[in-house]
Amino acid sequence: MARPAPLQSSPRPAGDSLQQQFYRRFEHAILGGLTLLLFLLFWEGLSRGLWAELLEPLIGVAADGLRVRPIFISAPTRIYAALVQMIVSGEIWEHLYVSGVAFVLGGALALVVGIPLGLAAGWYRRLNYAVEPFLTAFNATPQVVFIPLIIMWVGTGLAARVLIIAMVTIIPIVMSALAAVKTTDPRLLKVAASMGSSEWRRFRDIILPSSVPFLLVGLRLGVGRGMVGIVVGEIYAATAGVGYLINISGASFQTDRVFVGILIIALAGLLLTAAIHRVERRVERWRPQSPRTA
Known about the structure:
Oligomer: single chain
Radius of gyration: 26 Å
CATH class of the largest domain: Mainly Alpha
Number of strands: 0
């Protein structure tokens, strides 16, 4: 009996070098990093008047329009120096701790209240009729109008910041949970009911698993709103925190410290969103991806 030929790996396409394979594998990171580097170089040159000096021999006095005073925009190197100084002095850690505690507690409160409320409103028709007008009105109303009331009710301490963050975060979570139940395939529920499945088992085995992708999308949207809640809450009701840092630095025209606070908020939102997106990809492996995002 002839011995079967050993399995061989598929040959690499002609002209497909190791560099091309490396680029295709890390294309997203390479293009994103290159774009960020070019943006930082442009920003540095603009804030220091470099582009105005380079273009002045070509366009004359019109190049003065590219000169920006440091009070309006700070250079990335100055922002980095301010951040290092705040890290060395320990000032930044207090702001991060205050904002982090408020965000975690406010986000947890929004999840504990928002997910059950959204799922229950989607599952029980009469409850949906009762709460949907309030949800729609609350979503259409800028939540900042309730901040004076919150301060009157609980003061300007941690409780006020937690309530503000929960208030601005809860709507996308509730709406996503509500949409998750409404978009569940009714045929699955009918088949389960015809086989004698109880209401609780249908909810547990069909509604909850199908709701996970929607809940993760709502959580990603809630992260962005939570970052807004941090800044707004600490402007009105805090003596420390990243939002307080942005507010007090802007009032004293310390532009570099303002950008430090802005970049911290942006980086925190980016990391949290990336983490949620990673979880979302794990639980949605059954869903086919488009060629552009695969």
